[in-house]
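Subject: sequence -> structure tokens, single chain

Hey, anyone have a minute? Need the predicted structure for the following. Not urgent.
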Amino acid sequence: MLSRMMRIDTVRFGCVDVRTQDVIVFPLGIPGLENCRRWVLLTPPDGSTVHWLQCVDQPETALAVVNPRHFLPTYQARMSRRELDCLELRTADETRVLVTVNRTERGLALNLKAPLVINRNRRLGRQMISNSDLPVQYLLEENVAEARRKTA
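Reply:
Had a minute. Here:
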């Protein structure tokens, strides 16, 4: 199967060539970015934990995202089965969960309450609101320091 390529002239990364089959469709957009429905996940070549969800439709828009389990190995977001139905998930292996990274006045924060759930095979995504008691702003510096104090 031949891969078709497309070029995105991004603000942050310059011209980026991506395979059309790597496009992830968020049928409802992302809250606050409802018109942004097609995205690609850009993985930095340096092995950084921060990836970028780059909008195909609005090249000036990109979201910093991470796998929350990199920072919280026991992270679990609970969502109703009905909410997940639109992603056509059949197995847990098809699922990729990412959370956005935001800069606040107190440092970098992860939005653990509203993860981005992606069906890797179908290339469908949706931002969900977790039923779990998770913070919208999990401050990395404070929480990493606290975890280190507990293990010392």
